[in-house]
Amino acid sequence: MRKLALAILALPLTACGSGETPPKPLTEAESAMLSPSDPKLAELYAGSCKACHTVKDSLAPLTGDRTLWDARWAQGEDALLAAAIQGKKGMPAGGQCFSCTPDDMKALIRFMAGREGEQ
User: Fold this and answer.
1) In this structure, what are the phi and psi dihedrals at residue 13, rounded to the nearest 5 degrees?
2) Among the listed ranges 2-6, 41-45, 70-74, 78-82, which one has the minimum average pLDDT value?
3) Which domain does 79 fall in, by range?
4) Which of 21, 62, 99, 112 has its CA 20 to 30 Å from the CA of residue 50?
5) Phi, psi dihedrals of residue 88, rounded to the nearest 5°
6) 51-68: b or e for each residue (b if 16 or more CB lie within 10 Å)?
7) Which residues pair with 88 in a beta bridge?
8) What digits encode the pLDDT tens for the residues 48-72?
9) Structural domain count of the chain
């Protein structure tokens, strides 16, 4: 019943704005199935980011879950990159990706934020 009430309350919101469907939360399983299209990034992601960004209990935003990433994305790519390089809360500096360049990290952030391929 609660889910139905929330869905009804959300209907007016979906009718407004750009006509874009609002993002929906992803499950851990849905997040874990995602991988960057670039083979090099896929390897870097699997070796570092994926361990935390597909597990809700890690408190890291799940890969591809725009309901968790959009507010962070609004801070700007430079702020996200700085946080990834310096570390933030439970995330170690560089996300434990010792072979990631700043450009790699930027591309990985775009991927995890659900914006792979956007400019």
Assistant:
1) -70, -35
2) 2-6
3) 24-112
4) 21
5) -155, 130
6) ebbbeeeeebbbbbbbeb
7) 91
8) 999 999 999 999 999 999 999 999 9
9) 1
